Amino acid sequence: MDLTIVIVSFKSGEILDKCIKSIDNKYQIIVVENSLDHSLKSKLEKSHLNVNCVIPEKNLGYGAGNNLGIKLAKSKYVLILNPDTILLHNTIEKLNQATKKIKDFAILGPKIYGENDNEHQDYKSVEYIKGFAILFNKEKFTKIGFFDEKYFLYFEEIDLCRKIIKSGFKIYCINDALIKHEGGKSHERKYDFEMELSRNWHWMWSTFYYHKKNFGYLTGISKIYKNFFSSLIKVIIYFLIFNSQKKKIYFQRLSGIYNSLIGKPSWYRPNFKI
Residue 28 in contact with residue 4, Cβ under 8 Å? Predict the structure, then answer.
């Protein structure tokens, strides 16, 4: 199969190595290392001859990081994976079979192992697949482009799937191509709190931006105003009861909403001076 694997990593540690080991070494892997760890690049490229680890100039986030990997790939198909995924022994084979049966697809997605095992058809047309594993048919994207790089984290694949459907292309879920996804474990555990702050900021920023972009400013407001007031109240409560961690989390939500409302870019980055 004419395929390249792209993995965007950020403080991913051993979980990334497990993902790579689940991939047949006959496939080229591009790791876009967003935490700018040159020692990880050296380690990966020495341990895995099929891995090219790219260090960008800055943390690009999910969308732009994957876009970089996709553009660097010379193959017809690109499979993007999160670091906390594990391929089964025949996952790629099943995806390859699907590319031969389905000629009109823009993207394909495998199914999570153990989820909805009562599905009897090999594949089905869908309007959305999750972003932890997406197979791209690159030629379909020459006009519409890949991920919107204004997103840093969250809603990128939802936005992309909407764009694909609006452009008249097709999305499929391949039910017999299975993948294990641990979910929320793409980074090392010692960075949990900083990542929690980042997730809360970007979830709110991206929620408003996505709805404003696709449905208008007022719809965006309708999706986040309850979160705004809820977060404001919780910041005050946690300040009064001296719960600094909870206060920081809900302050991040407020900040993400505010910055998105006033049209500022998705600028927040986690602080890892630990």
Answer: yes
